[in-house]
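Recap from last week: sequence in, structure out.
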Amino acid sequence: MKPLDPRLLRLAKATRWYLAIVVALGILASASTVVIAYNLSLFVVKVFIESQEVSNTWNMLLYAAIAAVIRASVVFLQEVAGNAAAAAVKLDLRDKALNVLDREGSTLVAKYGTGFLSELLGPRLDSLDVYFSKYLPQLVFSILVTPIIGAIIWFQDFTSGLIVLFTLPLIPLFMALIGIVTKDLQSAQLDALAKLKGHFHEVLKGLLTLKSFGRDRLQSQVLFEVSESYRLRTMKVLRISFLSGFALELAASLSVALIAVSIGLRLVEGQLSLFTGLFVLMLAPEVYLPMRNVGVQFHAASEGVEVSSRVLDLIETPQLPQPELSRLEESDFLVITGPSGSGKSTLLKANAHSGAWMPQTSTLLSGTIVSNIVGPGEPISSALARSLEIAYIDFDIDQRIESSEALSGGQVQRIALARTLYLGFSTNKKSFYLDEPLAAVDLSLQKKIVEALVKLVAEGYRFSVVSHQKLLIDAATKVVKLG
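Predicted structure tokens:
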């Protein structure tokens, strides 16, 4: 797992200023830690060894107290800056990803699925909060604070510095080994959750159909099995998290204990001054602390790294080549065809600004059928009657529905077609852009609707249609094949 994806620095500007702030806070934290250890060690030596009055050494306690306030402020500012940066980065990444989805939506939905994309750009992206506010600062501190304090210990006491030099690499070594195992687990965990959400989404969409065929109970069992698999994966990740946290804490604690024993023995033998021993002993835990904190936050942040990597991959999806707009408008009845994911819907939508557009997936709102065509409260007009006739709406238009699930797929498409035709007729638009308008319509009705559309072409109307259906392709005056 990469601690920091370089693409974040390039695509999310907030990452750059946040890292600059963290570097400044890391230097300030190092200085305040050294000041605290120095003044407290000096105070103990002056009072308990040199028997000076406390009133003569109060300034040392004051300096230590000021440094402690500064260090506490560093922790507070780190949290504030981390939350602000996480919010800015999430907003930036979501905005860029949604722009890509708007451009290459059909390709990406075909590749990843609706459930995966909604989960990735929704709650999963919130895992960046922990990454920016907890993990990344400690990562920077381990790069800055650890070498600075380690160097001070080395110059103060060569033996303690040598212990630090040999024990410190154990922590990143353990982290690297843990990271190798965790990366695959975290990726599999994200895939399992996306699969669970995607399956649940599809079941909800087709629940009425499943119930009508008596297959709803089977889907309940499938959902149970998928969720149980996700639970087992989660417990496996948690077991590794607790085990790795224990290993890192043990390595750091034993290292500090080794330094403490060495200092104690040399103090007893008179080989080390009390000031140096206390000063080094107070600084020793601070050498390992940033790396320990990185280990503590590692598993929480690994999800953020994995999610951000996938969002960045999404953002960098290459744009598919598309035909020129002027070429599409040359024909009276144009049909765009090609394999799924070749950019047909994207191309159609990009050209639809000049006419009435019918999307591939149409949604009906709560109300009557006629209100779903003309809008609630709109008067009945000749444009409506003509739209109903061409779309062959042969059912009660005053029928009240609550959603698209109340009707068959073919009925929904015919209502959507009537809505698009009504929009064109009522606003005097001559161009219509239809995305798979008859995919779910009965074959006999398809023939009638295509014949009606051909008659409209003779009246001066133009159609650009995305379709795989032979009836529409045969009726076209021009066919554009993508992919």
